[in-house]
Write the structure tokens for this entry.
Amino acid sequence: MRAIIIDDERLARVELRRLLSPYKEINIIGEAVNVEDAISKISDLKPDLIFLDIQMPGKNGFELLEELDSVPTVIFTTAYDEYALKAFEYNAMDYLLKPIEPKRLEATIKKIIEINRKNITDDSDHPILAEDDQVFVKDGERCWFVKLSTVRLFESEGNYVRLYFDDFKPLILRTLNYLDERLDSRTFFRANRKHIINLKFIENIEPWMNGGLLVKLKGGVKIEVSRRQAIKFKDMLSL
């Protein structure tokens, strides 16, 4: 997995590189010292994983994630434990307290590698999910066999995704990035870092703040299309 370390402290970056050196599955492809630097590196290098400090000069780690439309797998690395709950609201895979304990890091890396292997296996079995495909969904004791054309919205909730179809809203153990790669882009569109919408459920579109768009889906749900994604959205739907 291609990874970037984002931390304003040089010694912290050096130490994390040292701790990660035994794990050949993790390839450190770059470092960033602040949010602006990180946005540039993520755009250019397209990492699968970022190790992200929270408190940095200027904007913090949470503000970085707010500016990304497609967020890589995130592991927060910080000296402060009061941000733990908020971190998982931002789809964090894990939250490591500094100084990072080798055993704790080992558990995190093992979890990431296992999830990555499962995703690669699933991708090879089913490269792209078209709207006519049906998928098995299980949430607790309830099960559904869902035709994707009936799913109007996918909403990220940490390491889970909530599907909205008919009157049901089950959770599945997947990331939104994973689904974004698997779903047919002719039908499903990544509106922002938390939502993928079914284009065939769009009822109304109107201009929104900062150059974005506000999309109303059938059923009344309104989803903001971020400024960056709005450009893609307009290009995609224009003649």
